[in-house]
Write a structure and sequence with these properties.
- The protein has 127 residues and is mostly helical.
- 73% of the residues lie in helices and 0% in strands.
- The radius of gyration is 34 Å and the shape is elongated.
Length: 127
């Protein structure tokens, strides 16, 4: 039930804004003619912006986050499919027993360079 209310809130808020603008313009027109209609429209527009704009912006951000989340999930699914090994099973595991190189060429992995060890620090007699 709550999800239905949240999903329909955007539509209800938009309809309420249009009704407010139309009613305020009509009331202004019947009170003071064309000038009253313009004043009614302007006042209701400013009120609508001040009252409903933050709520509608949050709703728009919610929609944007949903679309970003959906695209990330889609790209993650396609990445899993794209990186899956061609052969799966015990025979493929027996063939592929090497250590991972983490993207480095095999020659770079073989040469690690000298191993540096720290020397213990002894206090000097001058201290």
């Amino acid at each position: 039930m709550i999800r239905i209310i949240i999903r329909s809130y955007d539509v209800l808020a938009e309809v309420a804004l249009w009704v407010l603008l139309i009613v305020a313009t009509a009331i202004g027109y019947f009170q003071a003619g064309v000038v009253g209609a313009l004043i009614g429209f302007g006042v209701s527009f400013v009120f609508s912006v001040m009252a409903f704009a933050p709520i509608l912006m949050i709703s728009d951000m919610r929609g944007s986050l949903k679309s970003i989340d959906a695209s990330l999930k889609k790209s993650a699914r396609s990445a899993v499919v794209a990186t899956a090994p061609a052969s799966v099973g015990p025979s493929a595991q027996a063939k592929d027993r090497r250590e991972p190189s983490f993207g480095k060429p095999a020659t770079a992995v073989a040469h690690q360079g000298p191993v540096l060890r720290a020397r213990p620090v002894t206090p000097s007699p001058e201290d």
